[in-house]
Amino acid sequence: MPQLLLSNSERIAPTAVAVDGHKPVGTDVDFPDVLADLDVDVEELPDDVVEYGRARVGETEESRTRLLAELEDMIYEKGDVTPHRMDEKFLLRFLRARHFKLNATYKLFVNYYRFRESHPDYYTINPLDLSFIADSDVLSVLPYREQTGRRILIYKLGNWNTNEFDMNEILKASLATLELGILEPMAQILGGVVIFDMNGFTLQHAYQITPKVVSTIFDLIVYSIPMKTYAIHIINESWVFETVFNLFKPLLGNRYNEMLFFHGKNMDSLHKHIDPKYLPKVYGGVRPHYSYQHWFVNLKNNATVIRGKYLPYVNNS
Question: Which end of the chain is more exposed for a tag (fewer CB within 10 A), N or C?
Fold first, then answer.
């Protein structure tokens, strides 16, 4: 089972950054690590995360200072895009996403802004207005981290009512979720884990995933967002999923093939990667179901989000 370089799995949920005396909802006395809120204003990262950043991502105080300056100079000198912000916190997420490799970081930065330019409709929404996606339980983020400190994003595409919203809305919600997620320094360094639960996925769903949709997914998730995916787990897949997956397969590089794991209905196989202590009961774990609406309630009362820190939807730093 994959672990960080140093063990620190028994984490306590961070104190929510709230306003007007609002207390967070959705906490659980049986599981003190549960809190559907962002851990953004971190003064110091845990030692194991710092060590992971040094050993696996290439982040040290020296590399951070030097490459932030070099990246800023490159952006201004080349002038390929016109960024809406250039502060260190913003640039740092791109460096972390590409393991402090300058040229790869710059390419990601340019791709990010070109995606914004070609998909303006994705950036005219407030992510907190997408709660209808949560109501359908098509996309959710567990309100705690798994054993290595990573967050888990779950897609249940079988719950998708194609008569109510199209794939474009799911992609917008995915972008909003990722943009909010990468506000967390831990997520920038460690990346995240994705579970695709394909139970109930039918031909009606498959017909919505056109080659254009596939291209947009790759432009967004693979090439344009400064968020690392550590592992992708596919469960409850069927021949319908395999038909759709064949559209993606030619576009996958070796890196993504290595992070893909297919489990079918074998939850023991999934547990080799994610400790059942950090999975819902439906996946052979011990956790109850937590409403994704708790995230929307807490984020609307999160001071960092309210101040506009959930970029790129506003022009603050």
Answer: N
